[in-house]
Structures are given as structure tokens and as C-alpha cells.
């Protein structure tokens, strides 16, 4: 997992937690419970992370709403785009914005709204696994996915165990990806 993408996920997740206090409260309860089960220590092991289902939903929902990368594939043969005269030539690198699928109302109710329950077991069972592409899917998915998710969760747990995230005067109502960033860092940063 890259440093820039992981730090951006942490920043963007912090933004969503600060702007959705009810969600932050639920994550805090889950974090507090895990710490209590670990004799009061916030140095949790991998098994504790596996039991933090709400934090997992939150991180996945952030990645759905704010994907950091494009999906890249190399065209293996000339391909004529249906109903057009455009041909993608063999050997061309094709970049696909995963946000087009991850904000499709066919897969997500109210696709522009932040709703961690989009990743409940029931909601996930109703849609194709290919409707969530933050790390790609199948044999060519991101090799750093598990590490990145663990890194983000550890950081958020340590942060939320000791601090409450709040908006400030510079907090924007909606994040906009910086077009100059290779990993969709928020334009102007995240202010909390």
C-alpha cells in the first residue's frame, strides 16, 4: 500500500467521521469495547480488528464515495466501442473511473449519501462484488489492500481512542478531489 493513498484514506475517513457525529459515536463505542476487552490497552491485535464490523463498514463506505485510484487495464485486442466509431487500439492503457460504478443507483440506494450500512452483510448480498472497486476485483486486485485497510484501521482506532473529531471554521461541506493529485487528495486538504 502506498503512503500517499493510505494517508488520504485516513484523512477522508476523519472528515466523514467529524461531519457525521452519529457514525463517529458508533465507531467510538466499537473501539471502546475492543479496548475494554484488551485489558484497557489500545494496542489491539489482528483478532480485535476482525471483530470491528462497523469500522470496516465506515472505511469501505468512505472508499466507495471517495475512491482514490482509477482501474487500469491494457487493451489486449482492438475494441470498437458499441454504437460509436471509436476504436480502442490493442496496447492502449485504459483507465476506468471506479466511481461511476460505485455511485450507480442500480447498486446503491442514494448513491451520493454517506451510509455505512451499504456494507452490511444484507446489503452486500444483494449486489455484485464487482460493484465495489476501490481496490479492483479478482486476480488483479490491489496486492496491498489488506495492509492498507489494517494500517488505516490501526490509525483510526488509536486516534479515536484518545480524541473526538470535530469540524472547524475551515471544514468544507463536501470534499473535492484535487485534479493535480495522482491519488485524489482533497483539494485544499482536510481541516478538522
UniProtKB/TrEMBL annotation:
Pfam families: p450 (PF00067). Its cofactor is heme. The keyword Oxidoreductase applies. The keyword Endoplasmic reticulum applies. One of its GO terms (molecular function) is monooxygenase activity. One of its GO terms (cellular component) is endoplasmic reticulum membrane. It is found in: Endoplasmic reticulum membrane; Microsome membrane. It is a peripheral membrane protein. Heme binds at residue 142. Coiled coil: none annotated. Keywords: Endoplasmic reticulum, Heme, Iron, Membrane, Metal-binding, Microsome, Monooxygenase, Oxidoreductase. Belongs to the cytochrome P450 family. This is Cytochrome P450-like protein 3. It comes from Tigriopus japonicus.
Amino acid at each position: 500500500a502506498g503512503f500517499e493513498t493510505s494517508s488520504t484514506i485516513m484523512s477522508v475517513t476523519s472528515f466523514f467521521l467529524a461531519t457525521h457525529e452519529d457514525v463517529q459515536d458508533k465507531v467510538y463505542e466499537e473501539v471502546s469495547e475492543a479496548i475494554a476487552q484488551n485489558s484497557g490497552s489500545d494496542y489491539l491485535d489482528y483478532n480485535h480488528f476482525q471483530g470491528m464490523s462497523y469500522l470496516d463498514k465506515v472505511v469501505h463506505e468512505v472508499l466507495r464515495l471517495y475512491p482514490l485510484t482509477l482501474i487500469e487495464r491494457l487493451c489486449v485486442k482492438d475494441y470498437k466501442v458499441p454504437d460509436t466509431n471509436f476504436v480502442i487500439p490493442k496496447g492502449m492503457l485504459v483507465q476506468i473511473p471506479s466511481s461511476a460504478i460505485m455511485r450507480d443507483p442500480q447498486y446503491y440506494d442514494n448513491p451520493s449519501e454517506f451510509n455505512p450500512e451499504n456494507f452490511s452483510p444484507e446489503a452486500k448480498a444483494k449486489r455484485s462484488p464487482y460493484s465495489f472497486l476501490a481496490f479492483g476485483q479478482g486476480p488483479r486486485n490491489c496486492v496491498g489492500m489488506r495492509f492498507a485497510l489494517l494500517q488505516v484501521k490501526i490509525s483510526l482506532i488509536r486516534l479515536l481512542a484518545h480524541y473526538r473529531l470535530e469540524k472547524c471554521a475551515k471544514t468544507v461541506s463536501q470534499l473535492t478531489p484535487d485534479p493535480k493529485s495522482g491519488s485524489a487528495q482533497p483539494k485544499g486538504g482536510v481541516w478538522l
